[in-house]
Write a structure and sequence with these properties.
Elements lengths: L3 H24 L2 H8 L3 H8 L2 H19 L7 H14 L1 H13 L17 H10 L9 H12 L17 H19 L1 H4 L8
Length: 201
């Protein structure tokens, strides 16, 4: 049986996710979050300590969802990029929260330090894939990761050109997925790095 406190906590995190994704940390209002969740504001402070603490909890929850839904596959970076594209369609709040974190908490430098768990082990896994001949050498693993994330976000809610929507025609999504897969493969496969064609997957 689900306890009332568990249900209230879930409602609070859901309301806070929507509020932070839409308004950022500075613009979010704890009164509005508590009212939407039908949770006493004092209880919210007892659980999370502050608005920043609530934001930390929201960010951790959303990152956990993405990390669970999109397993990192250093042996198939094109597939990973396409899976991220799909995750941005189904969970746009996550990428909006990444934008909030960049703007309000880490305006320069390595954003992953502000996103606990976001890159844990990924750089090392890429380095191993490079040693195994699965990813082009000569590019730092951190830069490989940044390139894949950047390409996957080409049509994300933070895009400066075109933000994809689940309502877009299926053919548009398929075209973007194919372009994304091909671009990552050509850029980061060992054969492409030697000037040849990317190896098919």
């Amino acid at each position: 049986m689900v306890r009332d406190g568990d249900a209230s906590r879930r409602r609070l995190l859901a309301a806070a996710t929507a509020e932070f994704a839409e308004r950022g940390i500075a613009g979010a209002r704890v009164d509005r979050i508590a009212a939407t969740a039908e949770v006493n504001k004092q209880q919210m402070y007892a659980w999370f300590g502050s608005k920043d603490g609530l934001y930390d909890a929201v960010l951790a929850q959303q990152l956990g969802r993405i990390l669970d839904a999109v397993p990192f596959t250093p042996d198939d970076l094109p597939g990973y990029a396409v899976a991220l594209y799909d995750s941005y369609l189904t969970d746009p709040e996550m990428i909006r929260l990444v934008g909030v974190t960049r703007l309000e908490r880490a305006p320069a430098g390595d954003l992953t330090t502000a996103l606990p768990g976001h890159s844990d082990g990924k750089h090392e896994a890429i380095a191993q894939a490079q040693r195994d001949g699965l990813v082009v050498e000569g590019i730092e693993p951190a830069d490989v990761y940044a390139l894949v994330i950047g390409l996957a976000g080409s049509w994300s809610p933070l895009s400066g050109t075109w933000a994809a929507s689940p309502a877009d025609p299926r053919a548009d999504h398929e075209r973007r997925r194919a372009a994304l897969r091909a671009t990552v493969a050509r850029a980061l496969s060992p054969d492409a790095g030697r000037g040849g064609a990317a190896r098919p997957r």
